[in-house]
Amino acid sequence: MKAWLPSLLRLVLVGLLVAFVTNPGWFEPLLKPLTENNAPAIYNQGSLLTLTLLHLRTVLIATVAATIVAVALAILVTRPAGVEFLPLSRSLVNIGQTFPPVAVLAVAVPAVGFGEKPTLIALFLYGLLPIFENALTGLTTLPVNVVEAARGAGMTGWQRLVKVELPLSMPIILAGIRLSVVIGLATATIGSTVAAKTLGEVIIAGLLSNNLAFVLQGGLIVAALAVLIYDGLSAIERYTARRMGRETR
Q1: What is the number of domains present in the chain?
Q2: Backbone phi and psi for residue 88, each to the nearest 5 degrees, phi listed first
Q3: Would 96 be classed as within a structural domain?
């Protein structure tokens, strides 16, 4: 495969995605055969562009919050004073994987109401585990000689963390964030069951009206976003790994 072909495919996918969410009518002839009884082929109960941006915003907020909490916990349990909290921290971050997102939404709605908030809670809990485990791996597999050199240079614990440990761990942490984002992009679709504005709204509308065209366009947009964001974060991860001299799996 020629080296330029993957880049060309990415550009084509970006172009198609932008064209679809901004001018979905262009694709109506392709989707019309999937409809019955003269049903609309293009989702007409809202803007696909707006729903896409709101979907991305929801995932971004949840991922940022999960990253802050997960990395902070990983730092805590890798310090001498916090080692004993490792089992507790693991139990906490595993909560999101123990309960399905639908169950989290069912519990969250009575507490915070319908809309974006219960979806953010579900995505936050689901995103903790991969980031925490990767941050923990990154911070516990640092080159001993580098850490000792930093200590020998007179750096304080805080200086070693900020200038040595976190930068060296960043490629592995980014791998966890990448996984968390992709999980969040898919999981956010169920947020529309509790009135959150996500691309799940398009899919649910299709399921309720037996309109395969709606289901397909909602699913394809989410899939395209997942592929492009995964690819972009992978590129950032590889670049960071090269700079730090650490390879990620």
Answers
A1: 1
A2: -65, -45
A3: yes
DSSP 164: I
Q: Give the residue numbers spanning the domain of 167.
A: 48-244
CA angle 241, 233, 27 (to 5 degrees): 155
Give the Å distances, CA to CA, from 248 to 32, 87, 141, 245. 44, 25, 12, 10
Q: What percent of the chain has pLDDT over 90?
A: 49
The Cα-based distances of 139 to 32, 73, 94, 121, 168 in angstroms read 53, 11, 19, 27, 8
- 131 found inside a domain: yes
Whether residue 240 is contained in a domain is answered as yes
- For residue 91, give the CATH number of its domain: 1.10.3720.10
Give 173 or 101, the one with higher predicted confidence: 173
**Is 22 among the domain residues?**
no
Percentage of the chain exceeding pLDDT 70 = 97
Please report how the helices 116-140 and 86-93 are oriented relative to each other, as an axis angle in degrees rounded to 10: 140
Cα 178 from Cα 108, distance rounded (Å): 26
pTM for the model stands at 0.90
The string over 200-234, giving b where at least 16 C-beta atoms fall within 10 Å of a residue's C-beta and e elsewhere, is bbbbbbbeebebbbbbbbbbebbebbbbebeeebe
Q: Which two tokens stand for residue 189?
A: 């679709």
Average pLDDT rounded to a whole number, residues 16-30: 91
Determine the pLDDT at residue 160: 87
Contact at 8 Å (CB) between 218 and 203? Answer: yes
